[in-house]
Design goal:
Elements: H1 7-17, H2 23-41, H3 46-52, H4 57-64, H5 72-81, H6 87-100, H7 115-126, E1 129-134, H8 145-152, H9 162-175, E2 185-191, H10 202-215, E3 221-226, E4 239-243, E5 252-257, E6 260-264, H11 267-283, H12 287-300
Length: about 300
Amino acid sequence: MAADDPRGAAESATLAGGEGSGAPTARRIVLGAQLRRLREAADISRADAGYAIRGSDSKISRMELGRVGFKERDVADLLTMYGVEDENERAFYLDLVSKSNERGWWHRYNDLMPDWFSNFVGLEESASLIQNYELLFVPGLLQTEEYIRAVASHGQPARIDDETERRVNLRVQRQRVLFRQGAPRMWAVIDESVLHRPLGGIATLRRQIEHLLEVTKQPNVTLQVVPYSLSGYSAEGSFSMLRFAEPTLPDVVYIEHLNGALYLDRPNEIEVYGRVIDRLAVDAETPDRSRQTLSKLRAELG
């Protein structure tokens, strides 16, 4: 395969996702990026491309960013417009359309998840490196079921119902990404206050700390604790950064708020948060010292 063959990056995304992964989300982004390159190589504007598929330039923009699903007819018309005539190449792109529209395992939870979070789950499944900074909670991928249940019920056991249990199951399903074949690396940094916040009670917190000690034995999971003395200096709020092995996929910073979430992927934005992550790594205790902190707290909690 030639080094500049656009199929290379798309095939890489397909293989990296693996069975049951978030490959559909990654494929959508890869396909969109390839369509953008084909359009630019043909010197065609987004407005003209949109008109050709009975749409607008904003529709082309959303397609090229991988933020919407693809219709085979639209992609076929765009390939024709962009001068892609080779049948094998056309078949490859059209097959990618079908694969990008496959439903991820999380589809059955769509009634619980807004679109902005569903997209994050898909990207999380496709990432090669997941980086978290948390000020309030243990990172979701590292929580015990008991801890998840306390968070999901807002600390009110009487509120636990079928919907709450499904939310718990959704998070437990997400955690499988860390233990599958070809699992991503996870590097989590948490504020020390997280380890003293007894969500669900002291017993729940103790079992959560025991779980952190166990899960950080995994070679792909690293945890660092920012001590009180340096808390709040490097970052004002929690965020996640997802990095991908495929060069076509940009790094993404995810910041959640009460009514939605922000997805940042511009180079200057990624650079700012990359520096923050580097600073957090310096401010936090080393992974070994962090495990010592966890062990000490576990002993104190009895």
